[in-house]
Design brief:
By secondary structure, this protein is of the alpha+beta class. The chain is built from 6 helices and 6 strands, in the order βαααβαββααββ.
């Protein structure tokens, strides 16, 4: 299984435009800073679903065909699925908002999910964290004997 981050929001393009429109100065260094800025413009919490819907990501994934199918069935993410040269495996471009991914990760990384779907969404979770989205997760993780971990998001 392989998961590669294909696209994520750009701070460099949005922040200067916001500063021009609002004539305010924003200190935005991370994607979480950007979420806080957007939330502050509307007097909402950074963790509000309506705020998390303003940032989108896309991932290129290669996984067992049944794992990709399960992702299609269990999440509200957008999928473009295609054949690969390896029998039994499919490729997919999986896209959605941060809110969509937070829902999908919560859904697919529980103790009742099979190892493959949990592994796929564990990798996506880790890539989102590495992209600068750490504070949006008030999550408890628990390692399982199969090498994956469950993720329980508090208050979401």
């Amino acid at each position: 299984m392989q998961v590669i981050l294909v696209s994520k929001p750009s701070i460099e393009t949005l922040v200067p435009t916001l500063q021009t429109i609002t004539q305010r100065s924003f200190d935005v260094k991370t994607l979480e800073d950007l979420l806080e800025t957007i939330a502050g413009l509307s007097n909402r919490s950074m963790l509000d679903r309506s705020i998390l819907r303003h940032l989108s990501f896309s991932f290129l994934c290669v996984a067992a065909t049944d794992t990709i199918q399960e992702s299609l069935e269990r999440t509200f993410l957008d999928h473009v699925v295609f054949d690969t040269i390896r029998r039994g495996f499919s490729g997919a471009i999986i896209s959605g908002t941060v809110s969509n991914f937070k829902d999908a990760i919560t859904e697919c990384c529980d103790s009742t999910s099979n190892t493959d779907i949990r592994e796929l969404y564990n990798q996506i979770y880790l890539l989102l964290q590495r992209s600068g989205l750490r504070r949006i997760w008030d999550a408890q993780t628990k390692k399982i004997t199969d090498g994956t971990f469950t993720i329980k998001v508090q208050g979401y």
